[in-house]
Amino acid sequence: MRTHTRHELLKLTEAVIEDYATQEDYARLEAIVLSDPECLEFYLKHLELHGNLYWDAAGRGHSLSIPESDGMETESSPKAVFPQKDRRRAWAPRRISTIAASVLTLLAVTGIWLRISDNRLADPPVLVETDDPRLEETTSNGNDSSEDSIVEVHLPERSPSQPQDETLVNNSHQPQDQPQAEVNFTDDQAVVEFINHQLASTWNDLGIDPAPQASDEDWVRRIFVDLAGRIPTPAEVKSFLSNSSPDKRTDLVDSLLASREFSYNFASVWTNLLVGRSREREIDREELFAYLERQFGENRAWTQTVHELLTATGSAEESGPANYLLAHLNNEAVPATAITARIFLCEQLQCTQCHRHPIVSEWGQNRFWEINAFFQQTEVRNTLITDQKSGEKIRKRVLTDEISPEVEPAYYESLQGVMQVAYPRFAGEDVTPEESVSLRARFANLFASEQNPQLAVAFVNRTWQQLFGFAFTQEVDDMGPHSDVSHPELLSGLRQAFEETGYDVRRLMRWICLSDAYQLSSTASEDSNLDEPEAGGIPYFSRMYTKPFSAEQLFNSLMIAAGVPSEELTSRGDAFEKRENWLQQFFIAMDNEENSESTTFDGSITHTLMMINGDLVQQATDLNQSRVLRDIVVDPKKSETDRINELCLAALSRYPTEPELEAIRKTLRNQIRLRTSQNIPAKVAVGESLRDLYWAFLNSSEFSVNR
Amino acid sequence: MTTRPDASLSNPDFPGEEFIQLFTQAQRPLYLSILSQLGRIQAAEEVLQETNLIIWAKSSQFETGTNFLAWARQIAHFEVMKWRQRKSREKLMFSDEFINTVAQQVSSTSEEFAMRQRALEDCLNKLSDQDRELIELRYQPGNSGKELAEALGRPANSVYQSLGRIRKALLECVQRKVAAEVTT
């Protein structure tokens, strides 16, 4: 059963159980259950659970209608499902740090033993304290996080506004547009306070205690990884820690937003979103990257960037933005349609290509094809161009439009097999072709404007997710009437602020990075187990969620850990080329209708081996190549404690805790003793042991996580 | 278990002790199979009452030694169909095809039934106090999600959502436990 179906089935069954299902829900449920024995099984278990709960709790057994059986014990099992109020057994989230655990394992390999204190890091998705060893065995294996690995979901309730109300299902299906008249959205401070107020009011309603402030060490690492796409250098951490200005966080946010690394980082994030990471497609990825870097560097309005991406013409090598459509015009522009909706609107239209959306009944097939029709005049032309230097003929792919007043509609087949036509139509406007303007240019005019509020909603949702790890919707790019928004007023307010400030990308990020929630620690305060989006709950942003590094963040951070100057990372040329090549090992393009990619950058063996003995880690831990390691090892003035402190700082952007320091010191001495006993010269033994320590830091999960 | 041997001895039409025992043991599985064909608690309750009357009336037709539950389920299925006909104007109902498929499937999957029931008990204990309380309230006699929402002063949708998540968690927990038990 596919996750999508399973999810839908769950929802429909719930609707039946709680008696709010419509006739259509019944029909849909039947269709799913009858289509697949596994679905039938799942449905039966759900109903069985419901029935059992009802049977026991409602004491159903005592009201049999047959008079003769009066007073009989009707239970076959003596125990009712609800045991009496004996519920003292506490099952507080256990504080296993996955990171500590993995460090231990890895350290065992090198023979070093190190104790990382438990609560340095955020808790992993909550495991449940249990007396049953079997259950534990099946649940503690949290890494293959399939849907089955969720142990317990604590069930927060949804904030009062309920997207499920039918009144909400209007065409701009996102949060209700209540006038937020009292907030001046063009004032930065007011927006930040608005975010704080919105989040805090939910915390109050639900009695959630927000986590304490993040330490400066944690925060400085967080902001560098989020905005610059890499860990800070030891010098950057030290300078931040020693800065006593009360505005130092604001100052750092501003300086990072203005940096070259910021535009480089977000260009890289958006290149991946737009055309994927694989280089197998016939496009010029680097041109697109360069274009986006300019857009972010000059802080262009988001509408402008989107408009240009949708209207660009020219060859892959000469026109950066043209690469977006050059990558997706295959298959009658089906990928272009689906990806445009998913990336820019956070809406999953791809299934409406073939049938009405299964949950959102107003998303018919026509909606998909009406957008698709805008791309009908656009084509990729292969031309041979003579290279002026070499005289060789080069094949070029050029994006162009066949502008004509005669529109060729999009044809599609309905589920019943009837051929249908769709004419270009968007945001309630029918577009008729004109002599001089391409259809997609007309589309872009409607799409990248306030006529399409979803563009701003989607960008806010995605940016929020990039910075917090969770979006306002369960899946960042599956918005619509069917998906609940955790903070509708907040999303709507940020949308308004984003629009009113002219789609200012940096300001949006600045507001979020300066909000109270972004300052919080990723270690939850006791009892805040209501806020567990990792376990499938609604995110309340009462703490920072830990985010695993993206492949790019990991690459950049390993380079920093090896002492490569940060300026070198953003020079396109060798560094870009090296990174691109390195990434290829993890990503494979798929030529399906969504032009998607598959990845092994997910804790797979490839991923793990890369960390254990890949080139980058080798380089970072090589005494000759790693500037960081060499400086720390060679300097004769440094004490043992200085060295341990600095290695920890270089890898994890923090100093070790007292117990960690003690443990490391002990192991380090044992290591040195062991080596010297094998007749290895003392100097070499010290160097090698420190190298192993650094390797262990880099291989700890703490290193690859943004906390 | 208390029975009334006097009644059964004095009345030849009255089912014997064994029958009564089978009858009482079958109540829960019978209810569950009716519920899965109808979807709604109250409707299933009504049909169970009617089914029980028929079972009782036909008790003499039951052959000792054959599968009581299978026999009772057949009667129940028949009663479900009858109930459907009576309520034919009711729109919120499953189709014959669905009901038949479900009825058939229910009768073939019962081995792990007791295991799941035990697992559920454990899983309920693992809920947070808050969740546990909500689910207990929901299943108070006569309560429904809607009434619960009114009583709590929360929007119905929000209560539905909470209940849905708790049940989902329970389902997953039960499934895991049973899987663990089967493999060990």
TrEMBL record, chain A:
Residues 195-379 form the DUF1549 domain. This is DUF1549 domain-containing protein. Residues 440-667 form the DUF1553 domain. It holds the Pfam family PSCyt2. InterPro entries: DUF1549 (IPR011444), DUF1553 (IPR022655). Keywords: Membrane, Transmembrane, Transmembrane helix. Residues 159-179 have a biased composition (Polar residues). The chain crosses the membrane at residues 96-116.
Automatic annotation (TrEMBL), chain B:
It holds the Pfam family Sigma70_r4_2. The keyword Glycosyltransferase does not apply. One of its GO terms (biological process) is DNA-templated transcription initiation. Residues 118-170 form the RNA polymerase sigma factor 70 region 4 type domain. InterPro entries: RNA_pol_sigma-70-like (IPR039425), RNA_pol_sigma-70_dom (IPR014284), RNA_pol_sigma70_ECF_RHOBA (IPR014331), RNA_pol_sigma70_r2 (IPR007627), RNA_pol_sigma70_r4_t2 (IPR013249), RNA_pol_sigma_r2 (IPR013325), RNA_pol_sigma_r3/r4-like (IPR013324), WH-like_DNA-bd_sf (IPR036388). Keywords: Sigma factor, Transcription, Transcription regulation. Residues 26-89 form the RNA polymerase sigma-70 region domain. GO terms for molecular function: DNA binding; sigma factor activity. It comes from the Bacteria. PANTHER family: RNA POLYMERASE ECF-TYPE SIGMA FACTO, RNA POLYMERASE SIGMA FACTOR. Belongs to the sigma-70 factor family. ECF subfamily. This is ECF RNA polymerase sigma factor SigK. The lineage of its organism: Bacteria, Pseudomonadati, Planctomycetota, Planctomycetia, Planctomycetales.
